[in-house]
Amino acid sequence: MMSNFKWLLWRLFRANEIKVHELNYLFWECTTRCNLHCRHCGSDCKTASLDKDMPLGDFLLALDTIPKKYVSREFTVVLTGGEPLLRPDIEDIGRAIRKRGMGWSMVSNGYFYDRAMHSRLLGAGMGALTISLDGLEQEHEWMRGRSGCYARTLEAISIAASAPQLNFDVVTCVNKRNLAQLPAICEQLSGLGVKQWRLFTVIPIGRAARDPEMKLDDEEFKTLMEFIKARREAAKPGDMNVTFSCEGYLGRYETEVRQVPFLCHAGINIASVLIDGRICACPNIDRDRFSQGNIYDDNLFEVWNTRFREYRDKNWAREDQCRDCPVFNRCLGGGMHNWHGDCSEPLSCHYKKTL
Q: pLDDT tens digit string along 153-176?
């Protein structure tokens, strides 16, 4: 557990990060079409989306507002959706981003990720990849809404894990049906050569808001924390790194289940361009409540520098259940995706779950 002095140092670091707000990650919701029908989808994506894919040229015009001198070595454009591999121009996208001196990565369900695709995307300069695995066969396909997708996901994971030049991780949405399977999934991923496994739980938005099997109760949440803690304590050099995502402050588990203390980087280091051109942060944040502009009307880089105030000063979140919270200065109301609708209170409080 961190001492009060170390927490003070962390708060000073966080304050500087907010003040500087260097843009490191830019998500591009390049499509809302998807070949699966996931129970927890925050964007409610469909095979035939009502939104047309954003033309590459439109996105590049927005990207080109970022001065070259501002782009650090870590700057990465993350292609997300929907399923990005449904775009036939995926290699052109990657090459255009690399031509601008930026890295690019992708979040995928892995269904179309075979060896030929792997070779093509590496050839287009892809430097990082995230693939989702949400249980063993029955549970994964229950979650993803398509039979046969489990085997294809495992094959994609195996292919990606075999490329040492690729910064690759697997993410798992932990729910009531796969919680007990975590040890088996861990062994499976380790056997495939995966080096990074990131676990998360859903905030009740999108389809997950209507599905009680998606949400862990407090005891189940603590079971998840204990599993991650035990894996990290037992890890040896070279073992797969198991970690919890950046959802919120975790109280006594805070430094036990992740590398560094909680910090929601949305609007501090992370922005996004959504399918309709809106400028936001992480794509799962309430896009009606927290979008900051639109690339078809505004200069992306100017928006980044002059707006995002609600992301960088979260005193507005100190209301209702957060008002008298003794750890508000460590939590700041949790991740921004935890505030939807009228923002009268967070949808979920991880700190209370750990008490």
A: 999 999 999 999 999 999 999 999
* pLDDT tens, position by position, 46-70: 555 678 999 999 999 999 999 988 8
Q: How far apart are CA 4 and CA 276, in angstroms?
A: 44
Please give the model's pTM, rounded to 2 decimal places: 0.95
